[in-house]
Amino acid sequence: MSDESRPSPTEMPPATRANTRTAAVIPAAGRGVRLGPGAPKALRALGGTPMLIHAVRAMAASRGVSLVVVVAPPDGAAEVKSLLDAHALPERTDFLVVPGGESRQESVRLGLDALPADYATVLVHDAARPLVPVDTVDAVIEAVRDGAPAVVPALPLADTVKQVEPAAVPGEPEPVVATPERARLRAVQTPQGFDRETLVRAHETVTDNVTDDASMVEQLGLTVMVVPGHEEAFKVTRPLDLVLAEAVLARRRLNDGF
Ligand SMILES: Nc1ccn([C@@H]2O[C@H](COP(=O)(O)OP(=O)(O)OP(=O)(O)O)[C@@H](O)[C@H]2O)c(=O)n1
Ligand SMILES: C[C@](O)(CO)[C@H](O)COP(=O)(O)O
């Protein structure tokens, strides 16, 4: 629905208006094992500021997001609360901090459990994707509000992908069993956007441990829609990703003149 055809908030009946509210859940409870030893990944510095603060700002930059729920490392909720207090964040946005769980799936569920009743749209955004541009966030929200039960931002792949028979011994050559048609493949990012009831049902129904919320909705038999992702929404997973993130941030600061 375009902005012109959507009723303005004051024209909507109260129930509908309340139902358009969007909250962002940020799972930030991971250790970051693949990044190497150190503090939990979300608390590590990027351009001198914790990665989590960048991710929170990226969500709060969208005028569609009025609540951010940060899912903190299990023993780090107090530290995360202090960090949010210490950094400038938009006044129009509310913040909640809850302790996370053993898996990403559990952390997201704990974030969902903390949501007040009047949020009908939920974004789930990795703290490990600190540089997602606001246009990507807005595109995901728009597609959910237009009626999709689940929306993911995604990019076409740069590399050909092979499906293999995994080697019994790591590092040994692996036989290729298929080459999926690259034009039909997409690399999925976050924020992923959901009709809240759908995401809650997915988390209640899917018991095998999956890291991608949208794939849980697929398991319900519902269609997940894809909107264009962004190169700068990459996930900081390994050490080289942190080098790239520092470079992207430095370029932004240069372009912004500070
Ligand atoms: N128990 C967990 C595990 C992961 N996450 C979050 O899920 C997001 C995506 O996970 P990933 O990048 O894989 O982070 P880690 O699990 O920390 O990474 P690793 O597998 O390298 O330890 C991150 O923001 C991470 O903090 C979480 O909230 N709770
Ligand atoms: C949700 C996600 O970021 C989509 O690409 C991804 O599934 C997270 O996976 P990870 O195993 O936690 O890195």
Automatic annotation (TrEMBL):
Swiss-Prot/TrEMBL site (Transition state stabilizer) positions: 34, 41
Assigned keywords, A-Z: Isoprene biosynthesis, Nucleotidyltransferase, Transferase
Annotated HAMAP family: IspD
UniProt gene name: ispD
Phylogenetic classification of the source organism: Bacteria, Bacillati, Actinomycetota, Actinomycetes, Kitasatosporales
Entry similarity comment: Belongs to the IspD/TarI cytidylyltransferase family. IspD subfamily.
Protein name (database record): 2-C-methyl-D-erythritol 4-phosphate cytidylyltransferase
Its job: Catalyzes the formation of 4-diphosphocytidyl-2-C-methyl-D-erythritol from CTP and 2-C-methyl-D-erythritol 4-phosphate (MEP).
Enzyme class name: transferase
Pathway: Isoprenoid biosynthesis; isopentenyl diphosphate biosynthesis via DXP pathway; isopentenyl diphosphate from 1-deoxy-D-xylulose 5-phosphate: step 2/6
Known catalytic reactions: 2-C-methyl-D-erythritol 4-phosphate + CTP + H(+) = 4-CDP-2-C-methyl-D-erythritol + diphosphate
